[in-house]
Amino acid sequence: MVGEKLRGLIQLLSKFPGLGPRSARRIALYLLSHRSKVLKPLMAYLDDVNLRYKYCSVCHYLDEEDPCGLCRSKTRDSTTLCIVACIGDVWALERASFFKGYYHILGGLISLSHGKNPEDLNIETLKNRLSIGISEVVVALDSTLDGQSTLHYLIQDVFPLYPHIKVSSLARGLPMGGELESLDQATLMSAFWGRREVNSALFSNTTSWSDFEKGK
Ligand SMILES: [Zn+2]
Fold first, then answer.
1. Please, which residues have CB less than 5 A from ligand 1, an ion?
2. Against a cut of 0.70, is the pTM above it?
3. How far, rounded to the nearest angstrom, does the alpha carbon of residue 72 sit from its chain's CA centroid?
4. Which listed CATH number (3.50.50.60, 1.10.8.420, 3.40.605.10, 3.30.420.40) goes with 4-50?
5. Is the CB of residue 132 less than 8 Å from the CB of residue 97?
6. For residue 201, how far is its CA from the centre of ligand 1 (angstroms)?
7. pLDDT at 203 > cutoff 50
8. Using one digit for the tens of pLDDT, what is the confidence trace for 92-131?
9. CATH of region 76-214
């Protein structure tokens, strides 16, 4: 018989990415069995992290400062912007440490199955950045249906507004269904260096997101 509060804790934990009810039950029991060494320090840490970290108003990275450390860097190439879906993708690229431009984090991917639309992503701040000083954009999105839908939307509805910007996307060598975060550094680097220029002509016979929305 699991008490109501404990059941609530297990339900909360089971919402974590990669955790199911079984793992959630084990973690809940572990936390309650190690209160002084794990549970209490964790509570204090979570509180501290929650208070300290905020989203960067420029690129949407998480940092203690706004703008974040990446955006404040003076040594990066200010003409190149890499568009990624999430903060974990920035970590993957920074671990491989070959990209020296700035980042823009969309905050997710367009997803019909999850009801995620372009207006749910950080597109307006992207447009603001593209209008000043950027000459090259690298789109580094997952090789999934949602990643490709998002790339398609950017090519159809966003990049044509900035025809002077050279746009490329990661090479097709990525495994289908591949998420950036889970790629090894060599694969990520070869996909990055093998990136191909993309333009709206590639998708001239397909429907733009706004037309698709209108036709729904
Ligand atoms: Zn930033």
1. 56, 58-59, 61, 67-68, 71
2. yes
3. 20
4. 1.10.8.420
5. no
6. 32
7. no
8. 999 988 899 999 999 999 998 889 999 999 999 999 999 9
9. 3.40.1360.10
